[in-house]
Write a structure and sequence with these properties.
The protein has about 230 residues and is mainly α. It has one domain (about 1-225). Helices cover about 75% and strands about 0% of the residues. The protein is built from eleven helices and no strands. It has helices spanning about 1-15, 15-30, 45, 50-70, 70-75, 80-110, 120-140, 145-165, 175-180, 185-200, 200-225. It is found in: Membrane.
């Protein structure tokens, strides 16, 4: 687990990462509930998925740094396989983001927010965490510069949030956009949030999480293909 521990240290040494992992999630806890009836959860919890995407692209950026420094190439001659390098880094990212999610859920419950089903919300966010990390891994595999990847992905996040029903209700979008929205993981996150507040059929919730896990697997495969180049 040497790579896992080293990855954790690298992440926590970066002050910007610490900001994303602590201050922003804490701020999300104290954002109020919208007065117009949407979103259904307090604002910080409606937009928490966007924060997860930002955090995941920040964390997985260290793998671009490794490519730039030739670390991945040197693995070919080391006793550590590419598979071990990959899964231990991904485990480090996942552990940090899951802890972040648990803190936000517990903090909101203690603060007195109505989260309807805190356990279900935690499950949804954790599953979306895996999806976010996989998307970011695949995205970063396309770039040689950490800065370029991050800046362009910020625009992609905003687009996904807009078309996925995170930033405003799906009903406000044209019908054509509503049909397109189903291809975005953020759409399924917003559907999951709606189910937590209004849903009854447990099968729907399982289906939503299943779709998000399929996205996670798909992007994980794409992101893990790039080894040395």
């Amino acid at each position: 687990m040497t790579i896992f521990i080293f990855a954790l240290k690298r992440i926590l040494r970066d002050k910007t990462n610490v900001l994303f992992l602590t201050l922003f999630p804490i701020a999300a806890i104290f954002l109020p509930l919208a007065q117009e009836g949407w979103p259904l959860l307090p604002l910080g919890y409606q937009y928490f998925g966007v924060l997860l995407l930002f955090v995941s692209i920040r964390l997985t950026g260290i793998m671009i740094e490794d490519r730039q420094k030739g670390v991945v190439k040197r693995l070919a001659a080391a006793p550590i396989s590419h598979f071990n390098y990959l899964w231990q880094n991904l485990l480090a990212f996942s552990v940090i983001m899951v802890i972040q999610t648990v803190i936000v859920i517990i903090g909101g419950h203690v603060y007195g927010h109505e989260l309807y089903g805190p356990w279900n919300l935690a499950i949804l966010y954790i599953v979306f965490t895996f999806t976010s990390i996989s998307i970011s891994l695949a995205w970063n595999s396309l770039y040689r510069s950490k800065e370029s990847s991050f800046l362009i992905f910020m625009a992609v996040i905003v687009l996904m949030a807009l078309l996925g029903g995170i930033l405003f209700p799906m009903e406000m979008m044209p019908e054509a956009f509503q049909r397109i929205a189903v291809i975005f993981p953020t759409y399924w996150l917003s559907e999951g949030i709606e189910w937590i507040v209004l849903g009854e059929d447990r099968g729907d919730f399982l289906f939503i999480n299943g779709v998000l896990l399929l996205y996670a697997l798909f992007f994980l495969i794409i992101g893990s293909i790039r080894r040395i180049s």
